[in-house]
Amino acid sequence: MGAYKQFLASDIVVTPFEVNKAFNFEGAAALTASGVGIDRFLGTNITGAFNLASAPTTGQVSTQYQSLVYNSIKELYYTNYLSSSYGDNVNTASLIPGADTAGDRYVGTTQTPNYFNYLQTTLTYQRYFPTGSNDIIGVISIPSRLFGDYIQPKSFVYTTPSGSITDDGEGNIIDENLEIIGNIFYYQGLITITTSNPIGYGFVTYGNTLYGGQAGDNTSILEYVTGSNITCSFSSSYKIYETQYKCTMRENEFNFSQNPSLSSGSTLISSSMGTFFTPGQYLTDNVTGSYFSPYVTTVGLYDENQNLLAVGKLSQPLPVSPTTDTTILINLDR
Length: 334
Fold this sequence. Notes:
This protein has four helices and 23 strands. By secondary structure, it is mainly beta.
């Protein structure tokens, strides 16, 4: 048997918090294994007419056209960095209000930043994207079931026989010489390798990271995309919600046990579901004294139709105080 009490809004507290999980995959086969599905693509700037029958494809898990990979990355992440490596100003329209909303007019271009071509940091640095004929880029795509809400900054490490590349926590992919060779988009799980020979951006330092630098790393983009002797590691970040239920018993509540075995004349009944007592007519002598206090062993959470949804077991029986409130906290993560 049990006793019921309705929760108040103040008794329920929902708290969000971030959790992280580290992943490490060694070898190309580990990236493409079932349940992992980390894909790598080669994007090529193929000029001229697009011939579907002869267009080159790419991909280790799924198959995509190299030209479409190149154009998609350019459109989504680099559109305002093509004519200016520091980024062009966003084009917006000016509103000339009319007598009513129907008379409003917009003057100027209506292009807006609908994509993800924005900086992921407050620092100002250059972003490079190749636009020459047959220029190539590398793309590493991590599925959302692995990175959760986003890749944890400063956690991505990708190692090849020629060296390692990492993210600097500001959206850049840097090599062992601290030179920028691409970008990472934490919330999309994408890593782009836009150059294998970092151009002379000039030396701009921030902390221990060198933004720019001189050409010196001749590692081919193909090694990142098609190589087999590789290691990839990163940490995911995912927001979960913890709901805390405050179960409070006032000093004048739940001061009588619901255990039917406390009544004299109770009958023991055994069935396929277990052993139960049916309550008798009179209480036993040991529970009628003024010093008797029931103990709580289990708390159940019910919906409005009294359907049991969750059960909380206490590590040891808890006496109900006759002089002060007793509160049991139940935490559920989801």
